[in-house]
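It is worth pausing here to work through a concrete case rather than discussing structure prediction in the abstract. The textbook approach is simple: state the sequence, then state the predicted structure, then interpret. We follow exactly that order.
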Amino acid sequence: MGKLAVRIAAAVVLAVGVFWAAHATGSAAASVRRVLHTYISLDSVPTTIAAGAPTHPSSANGGALRWPLTGTIAPAAKGGITIAAPSGTLVRAASAGTVQSMPADAPGVDIVISGKGLTLVYGHVGPAYVHKGQVVRAGETLGEIPHFGPGQTPAVLLQARRGGKPTSVLTLLGSP
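Step two, the predicted structure:
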């Protein structure tokens, strides 16, 4: 088999894997996503959601944080926001820090990361790809948006705290 045929076969296998990982559910799909996100960015595919303002992951937006995923934003309690996106969308760290805790929250878990005087809470993430005590870099994949029940919009809750007090996430993120 020639080099071109091997490259074409590899591209086909990769394309099938990406398609399957983007549309399948369960732990096998999560495992495939974990492997594939190392090689390509699955969330680079544009997300289309009808209502709300679109967000765009970028560190060049003038804010102190990176956008953790692409989706539709809505205000939430305590200065936080929800970012709606399809189930399976990868959630990335908005800033560097250490994973402090991962309390269960149906569906998914809340990932609490602290660093540089700022604590970020990523609510409703699952499966999680990080563990308590792990040091993460900005942009590193934390997990994905889980599959929600019927009639519920899959979304991640993002809240920020300085000195234990809620602070506006949108101020830290900058404009989308």
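Step three, interpretation. The chain has three helices and eleven strands. The mean pLDDT is 77.
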